[in-house]
Design brief:
Keywords: Membrane, Transmembrane, Transmembrane helix. By secondary structure, this protein is mainly α. It has a domain of 31 residues. It has 3 helices and no strands. The protein is rod-shaped, with a radius of gyration of 23 Å. It starts with a helix and ends in a 20-residue tail after the last helix. The relative contact order is 0.05.
Length: 85
Amino acid sequence: MHVLLPYLATAGCLAVVLGLFTWLARRIRRRGTAGAGLVAALASYEEAFRATSHDSYHEIQAQARRRSPADSPDGWRRRRPTGRG
């Protein structure tokens, strides 16, 4: 058992560091505090290894950039029909 201890310690440290980086990436993305370089690096990583996550990220960014519908010029807001007959 004492022969495997250094390998287990190394694997444990690696798992902790990778978990910390994953947590940091999520926090930076959520808060929007990432610089352009970090965002590009994370996006290229996700594009290469997790294609569905990359597509979802771009869809979320597009939804965040959309504006809410503006009022019409005469002051009335269009409303969707409720579907009640």
